[in-house]
Design goal:
It is built from 11 helices and 25 strands. It is of the alpha+beta class. The two termini are about 15 Å apart.
């Protein structure tokens, strides 16, 4: 079967369905109900997939309104394909409508285009292609749709409380060729308690730990004339934009700074607005607020590897341990906190390193910890995926390790399989996120070949 030709034939359908899905602003809302635990728009995106699948002849199942699956095939063995329809907030700096699905210059733009609506649509189209080609499925296949991947995997944790664990599976939510190793992911919280705020009244930056924050704001009990010129010079030197205004009541100053968002698995790809604003303020204010911004500036400015925290570590299999200060919050007279996404190497001695739970009088707590995940390179499952990739691309299918966390880590035997190709820029979680249309089609062909080899041969 010429899967590339078939994927090309269905390109218009592929793009149309992706545009439909991107148009649903499926960002987490914690004010959900039993009918929509993560918000009405997230539930709408889940329903969209399940309804599409049911109309196409798949067995559809909604699991507690937080996940679902589309199933085809017969037999005892089960292949899982795990994608997600939730997306991170759009953030600032877009030149396109983040939920518009605009097509320009061979790209389709929108939040989720590459993480993970585009890849999930590619896998969905591939599954339909194999079904419509008339092949017998000797193994059952489930396209499992999650709705909380960006905020902690609660959806698939709930899903697997009642649903069957696939014997093998892949998540189209990272890089090609094949990622058989994922770093551990820990959510750390550094907590500072204050009696008085001093000149810093409030400081906020970031919404999610898995994003480099692109916006920061500070309210100061200072006259704007005391900091305006210095702030302008700082922003020019750092090559970022910022604004200094008198507060609404005229008694203080509001500083805002814009950075650049990026995925937390590699903080250096972004410009952390919170760290930069703390760096500016560290010698401009006094009081307890100064301790907060100095802590951020000292331990996180220019160091995404945890060296200053004495938590750095690297191994050959998965590379450096990384630290992203993703949420920074301070309010005078209350507890201040810095939440950090730590992506740690496969052989990282986590328990031993975490024994150091205080630094400079600041307490550190572990809010969550997802251990590293690894599938042996010689496993027949890996070999089959390599064959599928090499057949459709003509390129060697090398094995990779990443700092991102995909649904592969919740499987007993799972890997991340695409869909970013080698050399492609990773624009996940960034403004003007896009998917390359030719690569979307190529990925669809690769997934079809993989499904055929794993479930039909």
């Amino acid at each position: 079967m010429d899967w590339q030709r078939e994927a090309e034939r269905r390109k218009d359908e592929l793009l149309s369905e992706l545009q439909e899905l991107i148009a649903i602003p499926s960002v987490l809302s914690e004010d959900g109900s039993l009918d929509a635990p993560y918000g009405t728009e997230v539930r709408k995106a889940l329903d969209w997939f399940l309804e599409k699948g049911e109309r196409a002849g798949f067995k559809a199942k909604n699991v507690a309104n937080v996940a679902g699956h589309l199933e085809i095939g017969e037999g005892q063995e089960l292949l899982g394909i795990l994608g997600h329809v939730d997306v991170v907030p759009a953030g600032d700096g877009w030149t396109k409508d983040p939920f518009g699905g605009e097509i320009a210059d061979g790209k389709l733009y929108g939040r989720g285009a590459i993480d993970d609506k585009g890849p999930t649509i590619a896998a969905w189209m591939a599954l339909k292609m194999v079904k419509d080609a008339g092949f017998d499925f000797k193994r059952r296949v489930r396209l499992i749709i999650g709705t909380d991947e960006e905020s902690g995997f609660r959806c698939v944790e709930r899903y697997f409380e009642t649903e069957e664990m696939p014997g093998i599976g892949f998540a189209p939510d990272a890089d090609f060729p094949i990622i058989n190793a994922e770093k551990g992911i820990a959510d750390l919280k550094y907590m500072l308690n204050f009696a008085e705020g001093g000149e810093l009244l409030e400081f906020t930056s970031g919404e999610r730990t898995n994003m480099v924050p692109d916006h920061a704001i500070a309210h100061l009990a200072l006259d704007s004339q005391q900091v305006a010129s210095a702030f302008q010079a700082f922003c020019e030197n750092e090559q970022v934009t910022g604004d200094c205004q008198a507060s609404a009541d005229g008694t203080g100053t509001v500083l805002t700074l814009a950075g650049k968002s990026a995925h937390a698995m590699e903080p250096e790809w972004g410009v952390n607005a919170g760290i930069l604003l703390a760096k500016f303020l560290q010698d401009k204010i006094a009081g307890d607020g100064a301790n907060f911004v100095r802590f951020i500036a000292h331990y996180f400015s220019g160091d995404s590897r945890g060296k200053k925290l004495s938590l750095d570590y690297s191994d050959e299999a998965s590379g450096d341990t990384t630290f992203n200060a993703g949420i920074m919050s301070y309010k005078a007279g209350e507890q201040a906190a810095i939440r950090v996404s730590m992506r740690y190497s496969i052989s990282y001695p986590f328990d031993k390193m975490m024994e150091r739970n205080e630094i400079d009088g600041v307490k550190m707590g572990i809010l969550s910890n997802s251990k590293p995940h690894h599938v042996d390179a010689d496993d027949p499952f890996i070999k089959t995926l390599q064959q599928a990739y090499e057949k459709e691309t003509g390129e060697a299918a090398e094995l990779l390790a990443i700092g991102g966390g995909t649904y592969a880590r919740v499987l007993d035997k799972g890997v991340a399989f695409g869909m970013l190709f080698p050399g492609e820029p990773d624009v996940a979680h960034q403004a003007d996120e896009f998917v390359d249309i030719d690569n979307l089609v190529k990925a669809t062909a690769i997934y079809a070949q993989a499904i055929y080899q794993l479930a039909c041969k």
